[in-house]
Specification:
3 domains; binds magnesium ion; binds adenosine-5'-triphosphate; alpha+beta; five-stranded antiparallel β-sheet; Heat Shock Protein 90; Beta-Lactamase; rod-shaped
Length: 453
């Protein structure tokens, strides 16, 4: 048996035991007391009745009649004169009776009195009623009753009490076992559930416990498990996004560093690559700093801080940064954007969107194809398009490419270092800007991603 149920059980058992013992003791005492009291007063009343008859007519006939009446009962009547000489007895007079008669005090009230009430130790209980004729004492009516009958009565009563006591103890024991089970079973279940939760298993299922405190506790644990699971998933998603955000610029930094190191690279190009590397490193430093702040605040999302941004220079700088990578793949990257086009965006976050789209266009296209980055305005909406002439996306995959970790050709995509996160981040960021993104694609013809703000 486990500890808490044992403690509760023992506590219950002891308190009920004490309560029961005390109440049983008082009940027992009361019953015996009133039984004995009844017997004594019945005896005295009987004596008084005889005395009244005698006072009404003191004749030999009456005395004989009384003796006859008593000889058939378990009580015994003795009639004495004032100095204790026995005039009549309904049965044989024993030495104990004589001793009790001798102990009769003077001045007995007319309603009589109890002479012996020690039913435990004496063979008889006894009462005396004085007989008065014309105002003077005339003699005494003694009544005796064997205490054997009372003793039997009381030992019978004790047997009943013992039986009731044992039965109630057994009943109490069973009750307590069930009660503690009932109370501690859900507690044990809950502690098991929390143990599993601490090991990272949030699939806790607690039995329905009703609306009491136990039920509320169970409910809270279930809610806690659900919240923790959500938090854990959020954290995982966030970490995946972060690693993507760090990985994409890092691959470009590494790629450009590799090109810059080549001896045949022209000095002017080398300086351009080093410039991009420097700029990207600065951005990444900022990103890591922001990440650290988020960790301190225990938040799982990057905030979006929108600013009025001139799209032409903004997109141009991204274009310039990407162009060496395209050139490296023998691909063409075109850029078209009217001046004076403004949008309310978070430049850091939005750059990530464009870079991810351009990165995909480059990765999933063959050499000597063309990619276009295009921005324009149509009926008050800003439209940014990334168009490639690559391998395209099969129609059956098209609805799923924005899902996290979804890749069309798993093995190919992996050889290109893809994790399937890019487009899900793009969609999330575009929607966080209040925009929409759509895709159109035809296999072996090309793909068009269109952002509307
Ligand atoms: N321009 C495109 N042309 C053809 N297929 C594309 C294009 N863009 C995305 N896809 C397909 O959609 C999938 C999902 O793209 P996503 O950018 O989400 O992941 P990824 O590029 O594989 O990996 P990551 O961007 O995380 O490095 C890609 O694996 C690819 O199969
Ligand atoms: Mg991608």
């Amino acid at each position: 048996m486990n500890k808490i149920s044992f403690k509760i059980g023992l506590f219950f058992f002891l308190s009920v035991l004490i309560l029961e013992a005390i109440s049983m003791f008082f009940l027992h005492d009361n019953i015996i007391h009133s039984r004995v009291h009844d017997e004594l007063s019945a005896l005295q009343t009987r004596g008084n009745n005889h005395r009244e008859i005698l006072e009404a007519s003191y004749h030999d006939e009456t005395i004989r009649h009384i003796a006859l009446m008593e000889s058939r009962t378990d009580t015994q009547v003795i009639l004495t004169n004032l100095n204790g000489t026995i005039n009549m007895s309904s049965n044989t007079v024993t030495p104990e009776m004589k001793r009790i008669i001798k102990s009769t005090p003077k001045d007995i009230p007319h309603e009589g009195m109890i002479l012996e009430d020690d039913w435990k130790n004496e063979p008889y209980i006894a009462s005396v009623s004085p007989v008065k004729m014309k105002g003077t004492d005339y003699g005494y009516v003694y009544m005796f009753q064997n205490t054997q009958k009372i003793k039997e009565l009381i030992s019978g009563l004790n047997r009943h009490f013992l039986l009731a006591g044992i039965l109630s103890l057994i009943f109490m024991f069973i009750m307590i076992v069930f009660l503690t089970r009932f109370v501690t079973h859900p507690l044990i279940k809950m502690s098991e559930a929390t143990k599993r939760m601490s090991k990272g298993d949030f699939s806790v299922s607690l039995p329905k416990l009703g609306k009491d405190e136990m039920g509320v506790l169970g409910e809270s644990i279930a809610i806690l498990a659900r919240d923790l699971e959500v938090l854990k998933n959020e954290r995982n998603e966030f970490l995946a996004s972060i690693s993507h955000e760090l990985r994409t610029p890092l691959t470009y930094i590494k790629g450009y560093a590799d090109i810059a190191r080549r001896p045949e690279t022209k000095q002017a190009d080398r300086e351009q690559y080093l410039g991009i590397i420097h700029e990207e490193s600065d951005k990444m430093t900022k990103l890591v700093k922001e990440l650290f702040n988020l960790a301190k605040m225990d938040e799982n999302i990057f905030s979006i801080e929108k600013d009025m941004v001139d799209l032409q220079p903004f997109l141009l700088s991204i274009y310039e940064k990407m162009i060496p990578a395209f050139r490296e793949n023998d691909m063409e990257l075109n850029f078209e954007c009217p001046t004076q086009l403004q949008a309310l965006i978070d430049p850091t976050r939005f750059e990530q969107v464009i870079v991810n789209l351009l990165d995909n266009a480059r990765k999933y296209s063959e050499p000597y194809t063309k990619v276009t980055l295009e921005a324009g305005e149509k009926s008050g909406q800003i439209i940014i398009t990334v168009r490639d002439q690559g391998r395209g996306i099969p129609a059956e995959d098209l609805p799923r490419i924005f899902e996290r970790f979804y890749r069309v050709d798993k093995s190919r995509a992996r050889s290109l270092g893809g994790s399937g996160l890019g487009l899900s981040i793009v969609k999330q960021l575009v929607e966080a800007h209040g925009g929409t993104i759509t895709v159109e694609s035809e296999p072996d013809m090309g793909t068009v991603f269109q952002i509307m703000l």
